[in-house]
């Protein structure tokens, strides 16, 4: 049995999801479970801070009895992250009719024409077991779908594109990269903005094994 929690340092755990051997392979990887009764609650807001209907995607906002009190010497920055008393998580998602929270994307990672960057990455890693890492980054002008196969394996960009469910276009580059060229934080999260700039400036070399399209 595996427990997954969704939250932030400022809020503590907001929701919890339980995986078992029975549901591990069929569970939706984008759902992050249900809130803790009495302790936490989630509301989905539009850009104007208004609540959206259940099932619609918007900004995830929360209330928690475990909420932090303030940022040390940065009270204004702390207060500015609330919308009508609800803490903005910086993520986009929805809440189902049964109350299950779904995280669609991080706000800073959203891309034009892509419903969910995280969902695309999930599709690729679930469909191609030879892939160690896949990252989709971009902006209004250009997008990069990069992937890193495990050592000793070869994966074509055409196969990755098909698994991602994206359409080939002049503004989308699909290519294999060396895992060591992907900038990471100390907690192994991809530094997406830094990676994007490296790709745009061609500081990252595409592998000649898998090729690129």
Can you give me a brief rundown of this structure?
With 213 residues, the chain is of the alpha+beta class. It is 15% helix and 32% strand.
Describe the model.
- The chain has four helices and eleven strands, in the order βββββαβββαββαβα.
- The chain has 213 residues and is of the alpha+beta class.
- The protein has two domains: 2-107, Roll (Luciferase, domain 3), CATH 2.30.38.10; 117-200, GMP Synthetase, Chain A, domain 3 (2-Layer Sandwich).
- Strands 4, 5, 6, 7 and 8 form a five-stranded antiparallel beta sheet that branches.
- Strand 7 (86-95) and strand 8 (101-106) form a beta hairpin.
- Helix 2 (117-127) packs across helix 3.
- The N and C termini lie far apart (41 Å).
- The mean pLDDT is 92.
CATH C-level class of the largest domain is Mainly Beta
Supply the helix-strand structural class. alpha+beta
Order of helices and strands: EEEEEHEEEHEEHEH
Gap between N and C termini: 41 Å
Strand content: 25-35%
Low-confidence stretches: none
**How would a textbook summarize the main sheet?**
5 strands, antiparallel
The CATH architecture of the largest domain can be given as Roll
Helix percentage: 10-25%
> Mean of residue pLDDT?
92
- Evaluate the radius of gyration: 19 Å
Tell me the CATH superfamily of the largest domain: Luciferase, Domain 3
Shape: globular
Output the CATH topology of the largest domain.
Luciferase, domain 3
Compute the number of helices. Answer: 4
The count of domains is 2
Strand elements, count = 11
């Amino acid at each position: 049995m595996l427990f997954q929690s969704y939250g932030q340092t400022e809020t503590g755990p907001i929701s919890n999801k339980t995986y078992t051997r029975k549901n591990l392979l069929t569970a939706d990887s984008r759902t992050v479970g249900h809130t803790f009764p009495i302790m936490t609650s989630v509301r989905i807001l539009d850009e104007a801070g208004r609540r959206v209907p259940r099932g619609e995607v918007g900004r995830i906002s929360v209330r928690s009895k475990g909420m932090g009190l303030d940022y040390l010497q940065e009270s204004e920055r702390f207060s500015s992250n609330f919308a009508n008393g609800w803490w903005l998580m910086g993520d986009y998602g929805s809440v189902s009719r049964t109350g299950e929270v779904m995280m669609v994307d991080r706000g800073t990672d959203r891309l034009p024409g892509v419903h969910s960057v995280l969902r695309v990455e999930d599709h690729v890693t679930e469909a191609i077991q030879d892939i160690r890492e896949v990252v989709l980054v971009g902006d209004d002008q250009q997008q990069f779908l990069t992937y890193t196969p495990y050592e000793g394996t070869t994966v074509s960009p055409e196969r990755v594109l098909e698994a991602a469910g994206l359409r080939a276009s002049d503004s989308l580059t699909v290519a294999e990269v060396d895992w060591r060229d992907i900038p990471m934080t100390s907690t192994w999260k991809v530094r997406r903005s830094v990676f994007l700039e490296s790709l745009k400036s061609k500081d990252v070399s595409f592998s000649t094994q898998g090729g690129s399209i």
